Amino acid sequence: MSDHSKKLGVVALVAMVISSSIGSGIFGISSDMAGSASPGAAIIAWLIVGLGVLMLCLSLTNLIAKRPELSGVFSYAEAGFGPFGGFISGWGYWLSAWLGNVAFATMMMSAVGYFIPVFSGGQNLLSIIVASIILWFMCFLVNKGIESAAVINIIVTVCKIVPLLIFTIIAIISFKADIFTANFWGTLSGNFEVKSVFSQIQNSMMVLMWVFVGIEGAAMMADRAETKAVAAKSTVLGLIGLLIIYILISLLPYGLMDRQTIVQFGQPSMGYILKELVGPWGAAMINIGLIISIFGCWLSWTMLPAETTLLMAKQNLLPKKFGEVNCANSPTFSLVFMTILTQLFVFTLLFTEKAYNFAYSLCTAAIFVTWIMVTMYQVKFSYQRHENVQLLIGVLGCIFFAWAIYASGLEYFLLCFTVYILGMYFYAKARKENGCERVFSKKDLIVAGLIILGAIFSIYLLVTGQIAM
C-alpha cells in the first residue's frame, strides 16, 4: 500500500473534526442558551462565533502548512514569543483539558441521576464519590497504556450522532413558528434594541465557545491529510458542519416551548425536552447515549493533558519528571499529578450552585489562552512574510478572542491564573534543570507579575462572592 493511499481524505477529516469537537456541551446547550439569549440574539451570536472560530482554524492550517517542523499547538507560541510563551500556551491547553473532565463528571452524574434519583443533579456527595472512582479508573486505564481504539471511537461517535439526529428530526416535526417568534428579540418592546441584544450575545458567549473546545485538534491532523489543501478544506467544511448541528440543536427548542420552561429543565436539557415531546423513552435514549459518549470523551481527555505535559517536558518547558514514562509508555507522574488536581476541583462541586456551568466556564477560559496565542503568532508570522490576507485573518482572530475573553467573563479567565502560579514553579525548575542561567527575561517577569496579580484579584472576587459558582 502506498503512503498516499494511507493518507486521510476530505470525508475522513471532516468526520474527525465533527467527532472531536462534539462532547457533552451540545446535550445541555438548549437550557444554557435559553437562559442567556432570545432566538434573534442567538442567531447573531452564532454568526459572530462562527466567523471568529473560522479565523482560528484558518490560522492553524496556514501555520501547519508553513511551519510543519513545529509539534504541538503550544509550539506556535514558543516560536513566536519564546520558551515562556510556549509554557503559557501549553499550560493553558493542559489546564483546559483536565478541567473539561470536571464538567464531564457533573454531566455524567446528572445523566445517571435520570435513572437513579439519588444521583439527581450530579453534585451531591454520592455523585462526587462515584465520579471520583471513575476519575481514578480512567487514570489507571491510561497508565496501563490503554489507547482510544478505533472500536471505542466508533461506539462513542454513534452515541453522539444518533441521539442528536433523532432529537433534530423530532424537533423539526414539532416546531411551531409562532412560539419561535413570540419574543424573538427578548426585549421589553419586542423590537430590536442594540443594547439589549448585544448584552444577550455577550451573556451567551461562554456557552457557545465551550462547544468548540477541541476544534484545534482537527487542524493538527493536517500532516495525515492527502495534501495541506485537503486539510484546510476539511477544517472549514467540518466547522460549517458543526455550526449547522449546533445552530439546529440550540435554536429548535425556542420553537417548541417558551424560554422560561426550557431554562427550568435539568441537565442534560435535551433529554428533558425530548421527554416532553415523545415521552420517557426519549429522555432515556438521550441520557444513555450521553453517558457512553462522556465515558469515551473522558478517556480521551485523560490522555490529552498527560500527552501535553509529556511534550512540554521534551521541549524543556516542564521538569524532566513530567516526561518520564513507564513500561507501557505512559507518563505516570503526569497522569497522577493531573488526576489529583482534577480530584480537588471535583470536590468543589459540593459548594457550587451550577457545577457544570462553573466547570465548563473554567475549561473554556483556559483554552482561550492557547487560541489567542495561535492567532497572535499568525499575525507576527504573516507580517514578517508580508502576507496581507493571512495577516488580516490573524488580526481578526486576535480581536475576536480578546473580545470573547471579556464577554465570556474575565473573572473566569483570571481564576485560571491561580493554577499558573504552580505551573511557573515547574517552568522555573525545568529551566534550571537545563542549565539556563536566566530563567525569566525582563518581559517574562512582567507577564509573570501580571499573572500573579490577576490570580490574587480573582481569589478576592471568589471570596467576596463576585464570581458565580
UniProtKB/TrEMBL annotation:
Topology with respect to the bilayer: Multi-pass membrane protein
Alphabetized InterPro entries for the sequence: AA/rel_permease1, Amino_acid_antiprt, APC_superfamily, Arg/Orn_antiprt_ArcD
Keyword Cell inner membrane among record annotations: no
Stretches that traverse the bilayer: 7-29, 41-65, 125-143, 150-177, 236-257, 277-304, 325-352, 358-377, 389-406, 412-428, 444-463
A GO BP annotation: L-arginine transmembrane transport
Main location, first listed in the record: membrane
One Pfam family here: AA_permease_2
Domain of life: Bacteria
GO cellular component: plasma membrane
GO molecular function: arginine:ornithine antiporter activity
Compartment(s): Cell membrane
Family according to the record: Belongs to the amino acid-polyamine-organocation (APC) superfamily. Basic amino acid/polyamine antiporter (APA) (TC 2.A.3.2) family.
Protein name (Swiss-Prot/TrEMBL): Arginine-ornithine antiporter
